[in-house]
Write a structure and sequence with these properties.
Number of helices: 4
CATH architecture of the largest domain: 3 Solenoid
Number of strands: 40
CATH topology of the largest domain: UDP N-Acetylglucosamine Acyltransferase, domain 1
Helix content: 10-25%
Structural class: alpha/beta
Distance between the termini: 89 Å
Number of domains: 2
Low-confidence stretches: none
Strand content: 25-35%
Length: 345
């Protein structure tokens, strides 16, 4: 499918500078631009490429000032925010690219399941008893949706993702490949025989609207009640969310972080990669936790920035780190001073 510069400019409320009939059918980075591709320039660091790119159309900011002519084969579309507009186009491109409908075979859909309009169920997908799916839901190969699960409109469940029974997934969500929603929480009680008895995990997972779950991320079901991922949360790949955790609206968590059971994370928080939060904590709204930070106590101050293990305020950690790096030299100086003192004695 091809789009002309005039069509794209109309979508973005932009101004065409060059050939309005220039057409593109693919996307490219500006430094790797090819004929009939669309690119963008937002970072000033990449400005030199605008003069040599072979991309047919480039989206640029209205404020961009050119020092010399660009190639005659390149048409510019000037917009207020090139990065935001290109992201808008990428989203539209993705929607067209992934606009699949229908039921492929072999797949299994229980007779009691209810599917909305324009759904897509790929080959080898499994949809259990009493599942209710909204409109335009997409379920890719080898995905599993357990009994009594609800899935909202426009949600995509990619290949190999697993949603255990009795969970609820909101609208406009994305579960990436290999993610597991609703596996048992880590609940075991020690007994007199010095081994462990499993505590049944009979709760579920509730995921609200506009949530994205990364590949191979796991969200454990609650022992009782629900593990809750609130509206707008974004979880990266390889994250562990324990049972009965609650993550507040629009919080983002980077790869390989772990949040232990029953911890409540506020809204608009940012948690860096490989950070670890122990269980039964409360984290205030807007808190920022740096990568590899270990959180072992409640964070009561909204908007606080923490780093280190155990965690401390970010600036305190940076000051301390200056000293950490000098510890070998400091130890040597102390040893030398001790020798001098022993001679004096």
């Amino acid at each position: 499918m091809k789009f002309s510069a005039s069509q794209i400019a109309s979508l973005l409320n932009g101004i065409v500078e060059g050939n309005p009939d220039a057409a593109v059918s693919n996307l490219s980075k500006i430094e790797e631009g090819k004929p009939e591709t669309l690119s963008f320039l937002a970072n000033p660091q990449y400005t030199p490429y605008i003069y040599e790119t072979d991309a047919s159309i480039v989206i640029v900011n209205k404020s961009l000032v050119l020092d010399k002519p660009i190639k005659s084969t390149c048409t510019l579309i000037r917009v207020e925010d090139a990065y935001a507009c290109f992201a808008q186009l990428l989203e539209m491109y993705n929607q067209v690219k992934n606009d699949k409908k229908g039921i492929e075979q072999p797949s299994y859909i229980a007779k009691t399941a209810k599917l909305g309009n324009d759904c897509y169920v790929a080959a080898f997908a499994y949809i259990g008893e009493n599942v209710v799916m909204g409109n335009n839901v997409k379920v890719y190969p080898h995905a599993f949706i357990g009994d009594n699960t609800q899935v909202g409109d426009n949600t995509t469940i990619y290949a190999g993702a697993k949603v255990y029974s009795d969970c609820a997934i909101g609208s406009n969500c994305t579960l990436h490949a290999g993610s597991v929603i609703g596996a048992d929480g880590f609940g075991f009680a020690p007994n007199s025989d010095n081994n462990y008895k499993k505590i049944p995990q009979i709760g579920n997972v509730l995921i609200e609207d506009h949530v994205e779950i990364g590949a191979n991320t796991t969200v454990d079901r609650a022992t009782l009640g629900s593990t809750i991922i609130r509206k707008g949360v974004k979880l990266d790949n390889l994250i562990q969310i324990g049972h009965n955790v609650e993550i507040g609206e629009n919080t983002v968590v980077a790869a390989s972080a772990s949040i232990a059971g029953s911890t409540k994370v506020g809204k608009n928080c940012m948690i860096g990669g490989q950070a670890g939060l122990v269980g039964h904590l409360k984290i205030a709204d807007g808190v920022k936790i740096a990568g590899q930070t270990g959180i072992g106590s409640n964070i009561k101050k909204a908007g606080e920035i923490l780093q280190g293990s155990p965690a401390m305020p970010h600036l305190d950690f940076q000051r301390s780190f200056v000293i950490f790096r000098k510890l070998p030299q400091l130890a040597q100086k102390i040893s030398e001073l001790e020798k001098q003192l022993s001679v004096v004695k």
